[in-house]
Amino acid sequence: QDDRTAATAIEGEMKHKGRRAAVAATNYAPNGQEIASVLGDGSLKIYSAISGAAIVNVPNAHKGQATALAYSPSTELLVTVSKTDSMVRAWDSLTAVEIKGKSQPFETVSSAVFTNEGKRLVLGGPQGELNVIEVSSWVSSRVIHAHSDDVSVLVAPSSSAAEDEYSRRVYSASLDSFIYAWDVEEGEKVATFAGHTSGVLDLCLNKSVSLLVSTSSDGTVRTWQAENGTPMQTITSKDSQPILSCALIGMDRYVLYVTDEGILYAHDFELDGQTTTYMTNVSDTPLTRVRASPINPTSFIAVDAKGNLHVLTLRTS
Asked: Which pTM was predicted?
């Protein structure tokens, strides 16, 4: 048996079942206590990350397919978006009571993220635009023409350890194959990440804002210096399959990634770039995405194609 496979394992699984539709987006709250999901049928669900108990179920959060969600850094506010009903809805994150004054229509939003200081919500659209919303007034302060194709994902620093210079920074990725870092207050591009040869599908950023990881339909995972876009490593999937999702765990030792065939891989940066497959027993259904816990360096969630959430822990020797 491969020693690297034996040295990595999954334990402590909680599975959330019974969904009527696939999960469109999911993530931990910044405090690590809850997990929110929006589904293809427009519903919103919130679970305890500790016990696995369902906390909230909003069956008709959107009229049609929900596409993305974002927590504010304080965890008080949860935003969900839908391209179908062209609505951005704001919710009290604990009660899932809609905050009517903040919910409003925005055309064809595909992704959303709050800046690290919590003052701005950035919305990504299929025309490559970033719409910067001031949280204090809930109105748009600027539109950035960021990409030549759809914005696929947005990320921002999520830790108080991030330097002040990163508090206004947002990273955008697109089907045009490029990743950019933006100062969204000034509307300025501060870094370019070039190297993928087709659409970028996911991003993850470490807490110190030193490492950015991207996945692409070109079959690669790429790592970058988050400050300036300098390329570091390239990991190629088996048969160059598109890579759907990624997460950094284990104090940045591992990057987890899901390929188009639904298998989760772990890349161990301390083992000379070797890659281990070790999660074949998690689900009989192909996996679609992973997200890392913001407080537990070895915990993460994996989503399968049937909409089940698997809350898991990485154990290493």
From this structure: 0.92
CB 130 within 8 A of CB 172: yes
Chain CA centroid to CA 317, Å: 28
Q: Across the chain, what does the average pLDDT equal?
A: 87
Cβ count within 10 A of residue 199: 18
Q: From CA 192, how far away is CA 180, in angstroms rounded?
A: 5
- pLDDT per residue over 237-262, tens digit each? 988 999 999 999 999 999 999 999 99
Nearest residue to 257 (alpha-carbon basis) of 246, 268, 242, 241: 246
CB 245 within 8 A of CB 257: yes
Amino acid at 111: S
Q: How far is CA 276 from CA 190, 205, 268, 271, in A?
A: 35, 21, 8, 10
Using alpha carbons, list the distances in angstroms from residue 67 to 51, 86, 111, 140, 152.
26, 10, 7, 20, 11
* Residue 245, token pair as written in the block: 């999702």
Comparing C-alpha atoms, which of 174, 217, 202, 198 is closest to residue 290?
A: 202
Joined together, the tokens standing for residue 180 give 């950019």
57: enclosing H helix or E strand: strand 54-58
- Token pair recorded at residue 255: 């990057």
Strands 34-39 and 129-134: unpaired
Which helix H or strand E contains 18, and what residues bound it? none
Of 269, 197, 183, 190, nearest to 233 by C-alpha is: 269
Is 298 within 8 Å of 251 (Cβ atoms)? no
